[in-house]
């Protein structure tokens, strides 16, 4: 069920055999689970607030639930855009609602005009004035863009969005989340602020990539040896290409390198809740980042590692890959 939902999200062919298995397992697994969750009679589920992670979206789709995302603020009566029937890709929040105008300003801000937009803040004339443009559009404070389908894609808050060297708006977290839609990528550190193009440092999902390699008879011994396999590099390149298909030209990831070790809290590379410590990672992989924006090739790195018995070092060679 999960594999079928994943393939649908990724635009891949599901296949007759997998569809048959989904039809067999739905009444045995999905239907009882939906009932346990109180969703047996639910036809459409709508989510707002922060975007759902890919695992959550995939889980509910695998249960056969028509789950959709909406976007809006309290100032817009909670809804500005929404997914429609049969057109609910998890990376977007849908097209604008009827009679609603949504535009992207030169600064990349999403601005809204429509009958659901409020008139102003109670007894706060200055705040009200600052919240609207001269031609009456509400300033959401969010950054985004429209994809080729006319769906709105949220990048994040305008104040948190950086820019490429040419001024193109750039939101690392947005691209990192898109990369982590792949079952083979557990973590990503996307680079590009103040630089000419976008690149990424990739942490493999060990379990999924190991299973992928075993099924294809690809030999490996450790996580490091897995990252060095040309087949794995080609796999990640293809995963990034699939993400690039949904991105504007200037935001497409041009180069990447696979990290030789998993990011770990004990090495101060991520927090205990798996939030990347960007400054630490960029400092430790400084030579690799220079190669990503330089001549590419292979780069030697020496990384500190903490064990229960003490501290050690990992010496590895990373290779810059072209997407």
UniProtKB/TrEMBL annotation:
Tell me where in this chain the AMP-dependent synthetase/ligase domain is found. Answer: 38-122
A GO molecular-function term, please?
A: long-chain fatty acid-CoA ligase activity
Coiled-coil segments on the chain, per record:
none
The alphabetized UniProt keywords are: ATP-binding, Ligase, Nucleotide-binding
* Family annotation (SUPFAM superfamilies): Acetyl-CoA synthetase-like (SSF56801)
Give the signal sequence positions.
none
Q: Which GO terms describe its cellular component?
A: membrane
Question: Which is one Pfam family of this protein?
Answer: AMP-binding_C_3
- The name under which this protein is listed is Long-chain fatty acid--CoA ligase
Q: Which species does this protein come from?
A: Thermus scotoductus
């Amino acid at each position: 069920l999960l594999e079928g939902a994943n393939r649908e999200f990724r635009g891949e062919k599901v296949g007759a055999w997998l569809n048959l298995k989904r039809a067999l397992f739905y009444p045995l697994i999905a239907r009882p689970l939906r009932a346990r969750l109180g969703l047996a009679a639910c036809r459409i589920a709508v989510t707002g607030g922060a975007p759902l992670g890919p695992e959550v979206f995939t889980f509910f789709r695998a249960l056969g639930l028509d789950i959709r995302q909406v976007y809006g603020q309290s100032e817009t009566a909670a809804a500005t855009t929404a997914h429609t029937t049969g057109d609910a890709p998890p990376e977007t929040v849908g097209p604008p609602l009827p009679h609603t105008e949504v535009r992207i300003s030169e600064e990349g801000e999403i601005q809204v005009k429509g009958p659901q937009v409020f008139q102003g803040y109670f007894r706060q004339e200055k705040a009200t004035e600052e919240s609207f443009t001269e031609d009456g559009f509400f300033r959401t404070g969010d950054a985004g863009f429209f994809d080729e389908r006319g769906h709105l894609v949220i990048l994040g808050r305008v104040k948190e969005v950086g820019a490429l060297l040419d001024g193109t708006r750039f939101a690392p977290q947005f691209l990192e989340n898109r990369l982590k839609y792949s079952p083979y990528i557990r973590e990503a550190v996307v680079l590009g602020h103040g630089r000419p193009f976008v690149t990424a440092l990739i942490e493999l999902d060990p379990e999924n990539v190991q299973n992928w390699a075993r099924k294809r008879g690809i030999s490996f011994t450790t996580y490091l040896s897995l990252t060095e396999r040309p087949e794995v590099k080609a796999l990640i390149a293809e995963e990034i290409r699939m993400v690039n298909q949904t991105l504007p030209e200037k935001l497409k990831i041009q180069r990447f390198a696979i990290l030789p070790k998993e990011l770990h809290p004990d090495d101060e590379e991520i927090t205990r809740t798996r939030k990347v410590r960007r400054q630490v990672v960029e400092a430790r992989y400084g030579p690799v980042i220079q190669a990503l924006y330089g001549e590419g090739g292979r780069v030697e790195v020496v990384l500190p590692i903490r064990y229960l018995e003490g501290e050690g070092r990992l010496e590895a060679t990373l290779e810059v890959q072209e997407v």
